[in-house]
Amino acid sequence: MVTTAITAMKIKKGADYQGLKREMWFAIGVALSIINGYGYKFVLTCGTDSHTTGLHPKGFAVDIRTRHIPLATETLIYNDLQTRLEAMGFDVVYREPNRPRHLHIEYDSKPGEQFIEEVD
Predict the structure, then answer these.
(1) At what angle do helices 22-37 and 71-85 cross, to 10 degrees?
(2) 60-82 pLDDT, tens per residue?
(3) Burial code of 36-53, b = ≥16 C-beta within 10 A, e = fewer?
(4) How many CA atoms lie within 13 A of 14 on its CB side?
(5) 31 SS3 class
(6) How far apart are CA 37 and CA 107, in angstroms?
(7) For position 9, what pLDDT does the model report?
(8) How many CB atoms lie within 10 A of CB 57?
(9) What per-residue confidence (pLDDT) applies to 4?
(10) Nearest to 63 by CA among 89, 82, 77, 42
(11) 10 Å Cβ neighbour count for 117?
């Protein structure tokens, strides 16, 4: 991974991010750090946008633009995101068929996965 200064998060004009849950802000921070670390800008293209289905309107999913990232680097970013997020209940989806290049991250924990563990 290339190490560069973290730049501000970019948001696609018209993308709705109001109502994103705390889990998603955590995932966005992780993705921002990883993508910037490879020397590319982070662009949030979809959050709680009303035209979407599934976990987006509930605040538990985001899409991140990757069309400006070379495919080989995009694969590395995807693998890094999986490694860092999936054990905490996130799913990272790479290259959905018939869609512009992007990464989809959603929080949908399964048994044995947890984002927060309460301790004494």
Answers:
(1) 140
(2) 999 999 999 999 999 999 999 99
(3) bbbebebbbbbbbbeeee
(4) 2
(5) helix
(6) 23
(7) 84
(8) 16
(9) 56
(10) 42
(11) 6
Fold of 10-107: Muramoyl-pentapeptide Carboxypeptidase; domain 2 (3.30.1380)
* Strand, helix or coil for residue 63: strand
Dihedral angle over CA of 16, 27, 78, 18, nearest 10: 0
Which of 81, 46, 71 is CA-nearest to residue 61?
46
* pLDDT of res. 109: 83
Paired tokens of 52: 């979407």
Instruction: Report which residue type is found at 73.
Output: T
Residue 103's pLDDT band (boundaries 50, 70, 90)?
very high
Query: pLDDT tens for residues 86-101?
Result: 989 999 998 666 677 8
Any idea where the domains of the chain sit in the sequence?
Answer: 10-107
